[in-house]
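Our consortium's second objective concerns turning raw sequence data into structural hypotheses that experimental partners can test. To show how far this objective has progressed, the report includes one record in full. It was chosen at random from the queue rather than selected for favorable results. The single chain below, 376 residues long, was entered without modification.
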Amino acid sequence: MIVPLLAAALAAATATPHHPCRAPLPRGPAVPAAVILQTSCGGFSLAPDGRVSRLPRHWFAKHGGGTGRRYGADINLRRTPAGRFILLRHCQVIWRSRGLYRNDGADIAFGPHEFAFSAYRRGIFVTDLNGPERLVIRGRGLYPYDFTRRGELLVTTNVGGISVIGRDGTVLRHYRFRQRNGLAFDDRTETLYFIGPDGGLRAAQGSRSRIVRRLESAEGMMTFARPGLLALIGERSVAVRRLDGSLVASARWPRSRTNLFDSGLSVSPDGREFSFRLSDAHPGARSGTAVVYLLRAGESRAHVIYRHRLGPSGCAVGAGMSWHGRFLLYSSADGQRAIIDSESGRRLDLTSLASTLPRYAPAERARAYWASDLHA
C-alpha cells in the first residue's frame, strides 16, 4: 500500500497545473446585442442568447475601434530614448526624424501624407514623410491640433490662439478663442468651432470664419459629438447645442465632493439622449459612490438611471459608456459592468460574467464593448 500511495503523491506533485486560460466558459445573460469581452486570456463573444464563445487568436489585431485618426491610421509612432521619432507601417520603418528631441514634450498630428510634431522649446516641425522634418513655426507652447484635407495645419498656443498654417509654412489666419471654453473640430466638414473673446460662437473653415450665435455666458470646455452636436462640459453643468448654437438640452448640479464629472458625455446614435456620471472617485480610494445620469433632448434636468457603490479604484478612476440603440453599455474602472435600457430603466448586470471569464489574475475584470463598435 505504501508504494502506490507514494506513486500517487509523486504524480500529483509533478502534474502540470491547469492553465487558467483553458478554464470552462460560463454562460452569460441574454443581451440586446452581441458584446465582446476581453481579458488577459484573450477575447470572448457574448451572443444575444447568452452563449459565450472564445474568439480566434489575434482577433483584436484585425478588429478594433481604430486610432481615431483620419490620416495615418495604420502608422505606429515610436520614440527612442535619445529622442528620435520613428514611424512604422506594418512593422516597417517608413520615416525617422533627423534631429533628436530628448526631454522635449511633443504633441503630434497626422495629415494627408504629412506628419507634424511639437518640440516645446523650439516650435512645430512638419514632414511630408519623404524628407527630413522642417521647422514651420518657431516658439514655445505651440501644439499641432489637426490637418485639413488640403494639408493646412491647425496650431494652438497656450494663450488662447489658433493659427492656420499653409503647406509652405505661411500663416494664413490667426484666431483668438476663449481658453475656458476650448475648441471643437468637426472633421466631416473640417469646421473649427470656438467662442471668441467677445462671446461669439464662431465656425471657421481654413482662413474663413463666421459668427454663429452669441454665447457670452457659456460654461465648460467644448467638444464635438456625433452625429453633429457641440457639448459644453463644466464642473457643475453640461449643455448640448446644435452646430448653429441653439440649445438641445442642459443640466446643472450643486457643488459637492460626490458630484465630480468623471466620465465624459456619451451621446446616443440619434443625438437625442446623453449620459454622464458623477462620483466621488479618486485614485487609491477604497470605496465611493457613482451615479449615472440620463439627459434627454428638450430637458433641463438629468435623471438617475443607475447608482452603485464603488469598489477599490486603484490608479484609474472614471467610466466608459457606449450606446447601441436605446441601450447603454456601462463600464466602471472599479470593475462594474452593466447594460442599461434608457427607456425602461432596466439594468442587466454583467459584473459577475466579467469576473468569471478565464483570466490570469483573480482580481481581473473583463473589458466590455459592443460588437458593433469593433470593426474589421
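The partners drew two points from this record. The radius of gyration is 25 Å. The mean pLDDT is 89. Both points have been shared with the crystallography group to help prioritize constructs.
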